[in-house]
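Design a sequence for this backbone.
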């Protein structure tokens, strides 16, 4: 397992519900070990298994729920 932990900016968040939505969706995604969003800094810290999911797929998941991951 190749664990990667990185922090990336996220565009489009407007409230605390946005934070919960992103954390919930990523938390249910196979390959994501942990995801936490900081609304104040507009960033997500995500730890994932690079053998199961890659950054491109994570970005697509975030985009599918209305936000944009900046890599």
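Sequence:
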């Amino acid at each position: 397992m190749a664990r990667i932990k990185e922090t990336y900016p996220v565009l489009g968040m407007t409230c605390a519900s946005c934070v919960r939505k992103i954390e919930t969706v990523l938390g249910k995604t196979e390959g994501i070990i942990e995801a936490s969003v900081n609304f104040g800094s507009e960033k997500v810290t995500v730890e994932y298994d690079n053998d199961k999911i890659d950054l491109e797929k994570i970005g697509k998941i975030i985009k599918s729920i209305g936000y944009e991951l900046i890599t």
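The radius of gyration is 11 Å.
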